[in-house]
Design goal:
globular, mainly alpha, single chain
């Protein structure tokens, strides 16, 4: 099993707060970055056309924005209040926010390149490379340093509030988000994630959402 697909419960660090969802969304984002990099690397295809019409690109942008916005608006402010007299830790939060701030302009630039006939595949490839490098680095930085700070600073209740807010922002699209999150993961990881969700959501995923999502060609290259 690759490190990317490793069950959150098997990560090296031990937390008082349940980081299952945090690792799951990070792994899902890494998976989608692999799709993006693969599409722009294929010389025989037209990456501009593929990404311009790909459902996967729209889902990636939407879910990434929700994840980062929930952190920016719900999680980091709570931590800042508790870390007011700890400049080194505040510097880490500053870094998290600064890294977030570099991502949206890249997404905007990629969207612009998709409709710019003069941009060419090289421009798009360079932008996707920058996105892959920037977001992958951010996810690793957060996992290596920020998650431990979150865990030691945020109370269980505060972290649960963040999780609830994150979930509220996804209510409109849970039928696609849950199978998207769990696409390609192990049975163990699937069980861990579903165990955190309400029973109606688990049933809907198993009985309807999973099969419907399987028929969604989100990175269609035909």
């Amino acid at each position: 099993m690759s490190a990317r697909m490793k069950n959150p419960a098997m990560r090296d660090k031990t937390f008082k707060n349940d980081m299952t969802m945090m690792y799951a969304i990070h792994d899902a984002l890494r998976r989608e970055l692999e799709h993006l990099a693969g599409i722009t690397a294929r010389a025989s295809d037209d990456p501009q056309r593929i990404l311009r019409t790909a459902v996967g690109w729209e889902l990636f942008k939407a879910y990434l924005h929700i994840h980062h916005t929930a952190e920016d608006e719900t999680l980091w402010p709570v931590l800042r209040q508790s870390l007011a007299d700890r400049p080194d830790d505040l510097a880490l939060l500053d870094a998290m926010e600064a890294e977030h701030a570099t991502i949206d302009p890249l997404l905007t630039s990629i969207d612009a390149a998709l409709v710019d006939r003069d941009a060419g595949p090289q421009r798009l490839g360079d932008l996707v490379d920058a996105l892959v490098t920037g977001l992958t680095g951010h996810l690793k930085h957060e996992e290596d340093e920020a998650l431990e700070l979150i865990d030691t600073t945020a109370t269980v209740q505060q972290f649960q509030v963040f999780g609830l807010e994150h979930g509220k922002r996804l209510t409109y699209d849970m039928s696609r988000y849950v199978p998207w999150l769990l696409d390609g993961v192990s049975a163990e990881t699937t069980a861990a994630v579903l165990g955190l969700l309400p029973e109606p959501v688990r049933l809907a995923y198993r009985n309807e959402w999973r099969s419907a999502f399987a028929g969604l060609a989100r990175w269609d290259v035909r």
